[in-house]
Amino acid sequence: MQLEGSCHCGNVRFRCEAYAPVPFLQCYCSICRKTAGGSGSAINLGARADTLEVEGREHLGVYQAKIREDDGGCRISSARRHFCTDCGSALWLFSPEWPDLVHPHASAIDTPLPQPPERVHMLLGSKANWVLVPNGPDDVQLEGFPNESLEQWHRRHGLLQE
């Protein structure tokens, strides 16, 4: 599925081919909460990195999160979160650990996206205490990470764009 996205001020526009375009996975980790705003739930989609085209690269910033370790130490995440330096919009995540993939934030996508048949709420152990997480029949709530990947979830629901 061809996705087109942009930042709020319009200085950055991008497009890419998504193989996993259904926005089902909401992350409540402290990184998403602090960098994406709102209730702290960021929704990443799965796209092919070699299809990413960007207009306005001069307005891009990259943030690599500091991750606290159990032993009290801190490491820098390899994941690169791209955002607009003018308006602050979170745009996509790229990790060199998976060089074939790019993960656009659903909030930055301008193309109409498919409705998910279920929503997975992950890393609820990190959510802000004031956030109320939907808990309907089509909501899955997880304290940590899901056992299946974006691709596996899309495949299980017959939604993978191969």
TrEMBL record:
| Keyword set, alphabetical order | Lyase, Metal-binding, Zinc
Q: Where is the CENP-V/GFA domain?
A: 3-141
Example GO molecular function: carbon-sulfur lyase activity
Task: Spell out the Pfam families in the cross-references.
Answer: GFA (PF04828)
Assigned protein family: Belongs to the Gfa family.
Query: What is the name of the protein in this document?
Result: Glutathione-dependent formaldehyde-activating GFA
